[in-house]
Structures are given as structure tokens and as C-alpha cells.
Amino acid sequence: MAFRRSDTLNNHLRTHTGEKPFECVVCHAKFALSGALRDHLLRHTGEKPYACTVCDKRFTLSGGLKLHLRTHNGEKPFECTECHKAFGTYGTLSTHLRTHTGEKPFECVVCHAKFTVSGALRSHLRTHTGERPYACTLCDKTFTTSSNLKTHRRIHTKEKPFECTVCQKTFAQSGTLRSHLLTHTGEKSFECSVCDKTFSRASGLRIHFRIHTGEKPHECTVCHQRFTHSGGLKVHLRTHNGERPFECSLCDKTFVQIGHLQLHLRSHTGEKPYECTECHKAFDSSSTLKSHLRTHTGEKCAVFECTVCQSKLPTSYALRLHLRKHTGEKPHECTVCHKRFAHSAHLRVHLRSHTGEKPYECPMCDTKWSSSCGLREHIQTHSGERPFKCTVCDKKFSRSGGLRVHVQSHTGEKPYQCTECDKEFAQPWPLQVHLRTHTGEKTYKCTLCDKKWATSGRLKIHLQTHTGERPFECTVCHKQFARAESLRIHLMSHTGERPYQCTVCNDEFAQSSGLHLHLRTHTGEKPYECTECDRKCSSSSGLREHLRIHTGEKPYKCSVCDKKFSSSKGCRSHLRAHLNEGTV
Fold first, then answer.
1. Which UniProt keywords apply (predicted)?
2. Which of 26, 130, 319, 340 could cross-link with 304 by S-S, CB 3.0 to 4.6 Å?
3. What is the H or E stretch that residue 275 is in?
4. What backbone phi and psi angles, to 5 degrees, belong to 54?
5. CATH number at residue 463
6. pLDDT at residue 189 in the model
7. b/e for 77-115, b at 16 or more Cβ within 10 A?
8. CB within 8 A of 426, min separation 6: which ones?
9. Which residues pair with 444 in a beta bridge?
10. How many other CB atoms are found less than 10 A from the CB of residue 475?
11. Residue range(s) defining the domain that contains residue 66
12. Mean pLDDT for back-to-back runs of 10 residues, the chain (584 residues)
């Protein structure tokens, strides 16, 4: 290779020798060329001498300005030889090529997740460290990535820099503009030879074709579930590691997929990029538009049928989730207590029982709830609404689950059986709670007194003994209760309602548990056994009372003479003796 000047030759020779004689006085980085050092020093001084003549954005290097100008002139000189997609920089093309080769050279040292670009790995590592280095100067909210911060800032500035060239509609995010443009172009040049479905990209068609071939080349190393494309596997892995990298800049809600975040953001911005060409009604998602279009075409919605129970579901995803009821598959595991769930949403709600987080607040009484359905059910205690009616006895319920359980009191159906004592249950959750009487497991611990409980509900009730909170008030006598259920039972003392009747002796009870206990007087069943003397009791409270004979515990004290008793019944009988003697 020949050079006209000796200094140019000297500079070139350094590419062979590796010599870097120019050193930065600030950070001691070394460079082969004096010009490269000059450019580098600008990073320390903050000087940005190169300004864009279109938008006044400034750059440290002339190369940075050159690249930026392509966003204005649309120049994309680097083309992919596989799918002919064009890019503004060679680096972006190199990254894109990895989508074809499948190469993921950047690996997380914590969970071994792999990434195509180093920036994605850096962002991912923050899910482990909790680092959020990008702070908004207007509201102090912090973010894991600069792009999330940039998107968030537009909430304050109301900036919508992405404009549709067809209808001049503007958008806050480039992704939303891309989605919107498809409503104008409808461009889908790649067609499936099996079902005639069309795609805007060759890669989309290639992945789709696997539905027909059944090919699922991407396998989860944790549970061995297989996927048709790497993106599906990547999203699935988050169900194991709990990663939810996409955060809403308005309400802190996090998402597993960027598409879910984009959809959610529209609930804040009111953006509806999908427009019906027939009646010009706008929608926030393509699927909602697709459903709406059927009202014009008369086309019927596709139905996915369960091969086990013939239930019909609207989407293949809904069918997949439904099938877990039959297979018992529970891929989502709690990292605290290792309980497993069929749905990621159920795991999310469950995790709040460990963290104590209650994001849903009642607008009437300020009580907080860990799930939106818990809040909905609670609100019905204020409104008195009971929309679910039993077709046998016309009894009404505030919850569909309550009605479902009640119906089994008519049918007598109890499909869930304890493997230890053969006791049967109408629902799976009472069986789970019951099993803890055999194992002695108490996973819910009070943070105030270290007492442990078998269920989160029992812990919740117990916590109210510390706070003294009684949010449920009787409208008749103004007595207050810690639980909605206690209030409901109390109201029966005013109405005289006793809806639970014994089929043997016709005795009536206000509570199903009262009837359940009473039935044992007929059956002779005594499922609670003392570990000290083998005595059996018909109720857990009876066993607790009996155990005090062995422990010597006497928690009930006479208010007249301070004598102590092991049972409330004994204490009450004793008080009557004072009354009869006239000492009270």
C-alpha cells in the first residue's frame, strides 16, 4: 500500500504495530491518532461543536452529526443481503444480521440470558442490581434506560415528534407511528403458500410457516417448553426469572412484552392509531379493529375448541391457558415459598402476600387490596350489589365464586379429596388449607409479633388485632367488624335469616360452617386428634380448648375475682355464679 506523505504512512503503520502514542490526561485512554484524541477530549469538556442545520441538535463528533442527518434525509446506505432491509449505520446492520444468524454474543453472568447487543445486556443487568441511573429533572422519576427517560419526558413537554406523512397525525413513539402507517399502506408482500396469510416481512412469514410444519426449534432450558421463534422463548423465560423490563412512565406498571406496554400507554395518552376505513372509528389495537371490521363484513370470529371439554375460546392463547386446567401445568413459581401457578397474573398477585403491597384502594373507605378483583368484590359490600343468583333457591351472591360454591350445597358435589384423611371438599382452596392441618405448615408470618398462620386470610384478620381496624359497620346498630364476612353474618341477627338447614333434623344455621359442625353430631365424625392423649374432637376450636388441659393455659379471666379459665364457656358459667350470688 502506497502513501503520498510520510506522516500518513506513520499513522497507517500504527494499525500494524498497535502503537498508541497519544494519551488522554483525564482518563489515560490511548489513541493512535492525535485527531482521535482531540475528538475524545470533547467528551470530557462537554463541548459539542457540530450542529444540525435542520433541528439544532449538537454533536461532539462530525461523524455523529453525519449519522444524525440521515434521520432527516432518510438515507440508509447499508442493506441486509438476507431481507434487503436498509439501515443508516453499519453497526445497526451488524446488529440486525444477528436476527438471521441467531447469534447472541452478550451473556448475563447472573441468569445466563443472552442478548444480541451489549446495550440490551446492560439494561437487563439493571433488573438484577435494581440500578435506575436515568432521572427525570422535572419529577425525579428514575429509569433503567435513557430511551425510557426520553419517552417519559414527552409527557411533560407534550412532544409528539413522529408524524405520519399520509395524514399528518403525530405520535409520541416511533413504534406507534409504524403501527399506524400499516393502516394506510396495508403493505404485506410475503404470502404463505398454505393458508394465503400475508406478512410485511420475510422473517414474519418464516416464523408463521412453523405453525404448519409444527417446527419449534427454541427450547426453554428450565421447563423444556418449545417455541416457534426466539422471541417467544425470550418472553417465556421471564415467567421463570420474574423479569418485567418494560415500565410505564406514568403509573409504574411493568410488562413482560413491549407490545403490552405500548397498548397500555394508549390508556393514558388516548392514542388510537388504528382507523376503520368503512366508518372512520378509531381503535387502540389492531385486534380490536379486526373484531370491529367483522360488524361490517359479517365475518364470524374464529373459535378455538378445547379437545377435552369442548369449551370454546376466542384465541389460541386463551385455549393454551385453559388447557392448563386439564393438564395441571403450573409453569410460574414463587421465588419466596415455591408455590406454583398456572398464570403469571396469579403469581403476581400472590407475590403481594409476601411484599404486603396493596395497590388497589377503595374510594369509599380507603381500605387497600392486593388485587383488582378483591377491590371489586369489596366495593359490592358498600353498594349491596349481589348480581349472581342461584337458580335453585334464588339466593343472591356478590361473587360468581360464592354462587359456584353455594350450588354445590344443592348438588352435594365434593370432587376434591384429602389423601391423608379422605375428607372431601367442594373447592380446591379449602383442601389446600386443610392439608396444612396435617403438615403443620404456616407460611404467613405476622411482622409485629412473629405469630404464624396457615392462610393469608387468617394473617389479615390477626393483623387487625394490632391495628384495631374495623372498617365494616352495621347500618342497623352501628357495630363495627374487621371482616365483611363477619358483618354479613351479624346482619342475620337483625333479619333472622338462617339459610343453612340440616337435612337430618331440620335445624337451621346462619353460617355454612355452623351447619357443617352440627352435622358431625349426627355422623359422629371427629377429625381433630390430640397428639398428647389421642382424644378426638369434632372441631379445631374444640381441640384447641382441650390442649389447654395439657399446657395449663388459661386465657379467660373473670372480671370480678380474677379467676382464670381454659375456655370461654367455663368463664361464662363462673360469672353466672356471681350473678346468682348478687356479687356483681
1. Developmental protein, DNA-binding, Gap protein, Metal-binding, Nucleus, Repeat, Transcription, Transcription regulation, Zinc, Zinc-finger
2. 319
3. strand 274-275
4. -90, -50
5. 3.30.160.60
6. 60
7. eeeeeeeeeebbeeeebebbbebeeeebebebeeeebbb
8. 405, 408, 409, 413, 414, 415, 416
9. 453
10. 9
11. 6-73
12. 79 81 84 83 81 84 83 84 84 84 83 80 77 80 78 79 82 74 65 76 76 80 80 79 75 75 77 82 80 73 72 76 80 81 81 79 77 75 74 79 76 77 76 77 78 77 75 84 80 82 86 84 87 86 87 87 86 84 67
pLDDT of residue 301: 55
Please name the amino acid found at residue 20. Answer: K
249 belongs to a structural domain: no
- Which residue is it, cell 506523505? 5
State the pLDDT at residue 186: 61
Beta strands in 6-64 (DSSP E): 22-23, 30-31, 50-51, 58-59
Note whether residue 225 is domain-resident: no
pLDDT at 1: 73
Domain-terminating residue out of 50, 73, 96: 73
Residue with cell 368484590: 377
- pTM of model > 0.70: no
pLDDT at residue number 153: 80
Are the CB atoms for 70 and 76 separated by under 8 Å?
Answer: yes
- Between helices 484-495 and 372-383, what is the axis angle to 10°? 20
Q: CA nearest 44: which of 58, 68, 60, 59?
A: 60
Angle at 159 between CA 156 and CA 160, to 5 degrees: 140
Q: For the chain, how many helices (H) and strands (E)?
A: 21, 40
Residue 298 lies in a domain: no
The per-residue pLDDT for 187 is 59
Q: What is the pLDDT of residue 303?
A: 64
Tell the burial category of 518 from Cβ atoms under 10 Å away from its Cβ (0-12, 13-18, 19+): middle
Any idea of the CA torsion for 519, 520, 525, 528, to the nearest 10 degrees? 120
Instruction: List beta partners, residue 478.
Output: none
Q: In the chain, helix, strand, coil percent, each to 5?
A: 45, 15, 45
Cβ neighbours of 437 (radius 10 Å): 17
Helix H or strand E segment including 258: helix 258-269
| Count: domains in the chain | 2
Helix (H, G, I), strand (E, B), or coil: what is residue 500? Answer: strand
DSSP-assigned letter for residue 301? P
Q: What single-letter DSSP state applies at residue 257?
A: S
Rounded distance, CA 203 to CA 206, Å?
A: 5
Residue 563 lies in a domain: yes
Give the DSSP per-residue string, 330-391: --EE-TTT--EESSHHHHHHHHHHHH----EE-TTT--EESSHHHHHHHHHHHH----EE-T
User: SS3 for 545?
Assistant: helix
- Say if CB 53 and CB 71 are below 8 A apart: no
Residue at a domain's end among 21, 46, 73: 73
